[in-house]
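ingest -> validate -> predict -> emit
validate: passed (alphabet ok, no gaps, 709 aa)
predict: started
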Amino acid sequence: MRYWVLAVAMMLLAGQGVSQHMFDYNDLRNGRFAQRDVKGISPAADGEHYTAVEDGKIVKYSYKMGKQVASFPVTPAEDKPVLDYRFSPDGSNILIMTKREQLFRHSHAGEYWLYEPGQDSWTPVTERFIQVPQFASGDGKKVVYVHDNDLWLADLTNGTETRITADGLQNHIINGHTDWVYEEEFGFTRAFEVSPDGRYVAFLKFDESEVPEFFIGRYTGSLYPEPLVFKYPKAGERNATVTLHLYDIQDGTTVDIDTGPVTDQYIPFIGWNPAGELYFYRLNRLQNHFELLTCGANWVPRVIYEERDRKYIQRPDRETVTFLPKGDRFVVKSERSGYRHLYLHSAEKGVLDTLTRGNWEVTRLLDVTGDRAYYLSNEGSPLRNNLYSVKLNGKGKTKLTDGTGYYSIAPAPGFKYFISRFSNSTTPLTVSLHDGSGKVIRVLEDNAELRQTVFNRKVPKKEFFRIPNGKGAQLNCWMIRPADFNPSKKYPVMMYQYSGPGSQQVLDRWTLDWLDVLVQEGYIVVCVDGRGTGGRGAEFRKVTYGNLGGPETEDQIAAAKYMATQPFVDMSRIGIYGWSYGGFMALNCILKGADVFKMAIAVAPVTSWRFYDTIYTEIYNGLPHDNEWGYDNNSPINFADRLKGKLLIIHGTADDNVHFQNTMAMTDALVRAGKHFDLMVYPDDNHGMAPTGRHHVMEKMIAYTLENL
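emit:
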């Protein structure tokens, strides 16, 4: 019956004029609410220009004038569209990718060309698909890349290729590229860096021969399923052994860098400081001891900075350490005070100055140039951010943006200019060009048409507030009520959350998705960031350590109970939805909060942290043999017998991240417990339900909610 009601409603909304101010999922699918953006923005090395992709061309603009000064064709043939590009260090030539073969979430192989604007000539880097190319000369005519797990050097001036390594082997040895777990959790794929003078290539070698294999069956397009076999280290299992090496381009020799006696560790990043010294991060398996090492004479490393924590070090990234021009001083992003802040350090003297302080967090360190550090922080509210700069002695803090919402910033070298992307809960994306003081030079995109569409369709606004969790914490929330909300009526509530450590969903930024369609159908949608989420300091975030899924579940149940006390809420019709970690949470809530939630939708859920990877799981939950209770007490598999409400589980069979194994184990437990539930499987789709199922998933969730909540 409810499916028929939904079908009729969609027909009316699709254009028959009855509910002209409402919208349905077709509006989202057809892009009616899509934000326009400025694509392919890349700052030039001179700090005075930037480039963007427009109408099939790379267009060069002057920051100062805000005007186009040049344009370049971006493809050697009509069937080879530009997919990515970068200029050589001296800005004279362009490396362009024209074909892509996606591998995992961040990794791909591609077809690359060197375009020389002065000659209007195209030269293929190689005839093969390659990965993570990097320039090895100022003019870009030498390129280092990875092919078939080995490093290569292409010299485009004479058409030669040199093989730097020769032991690469699928599922055994990887040179210069990360393995699956580094790619997914540390968020990078190029595991090599060319020295500033172009002489050396520092690279990581991953020996994953002892890492257990996982396989995924490919079911469509062939008579027999085709297996995809790859190395996936689950919590407590063997990681790849990672070593650091240095190749001398000039004489063709390779030396090994001593990374210490312990091999069961992580080397998450390598690089070269401005003084030409090789540096690398070192992190122990439990991820509570972080070290920065630089290599001096004879490539011998020494520790110049380290940090320990009783629980864990927030995962290091490239912004964790930023070197100053001479290489002897550096800015560190650390939460040693309980909040993430910036500190100036010396390799010889240790900490020199505290640059930022307060009960708020630096969310990004964008640049250190001259005597100032430029950063984004949530000073004022964990829901919002702004751009600031501060002198390297901690004085002279200046606020460079003044919007009430959420920014991302793309600076020019030297921070003489920057491009900002800004939105808030009522304002779609605005892209604007600023000078270094924050003054707007010009607006690149204001999404005026979308703003009018939102106004005409009377899209309801988010309301931000806090909910007490009964444990002494106030939880950040937003709520969306139907446009025709009547406080004397009782409304069903759909709760949305992700809840993973350090994440934030309650942010003052523009979003519009399938949950907003439910609002049009008379539902209230509520989102709650429970304990363990980010933006509020280490104590709030790390309360979930060793108990992953415990406090978070308590908080979502508490939030649902709070909503049930509101006079406009139908307490018998409260549901919860989540994807990935959020799916794990949706399952826990419908089981441990069986008397509170009528319905749950869990998409691609983790159902046991024993099934998930080492880096993500162990940083928050420790090793399984040290914390069996923390792994099992919060696994929804072990509480299947508590199910009372309606449950829909959705998963793609080709999910390389949260394996379909999770859903199979949950299904088995529910069946053994005699519980009835619904299951939707998407053959050969990945964690994001690509390449085919994503829209189908959204439509399914809308229909399921209308029928069961």
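The mean pLDDT is 94.
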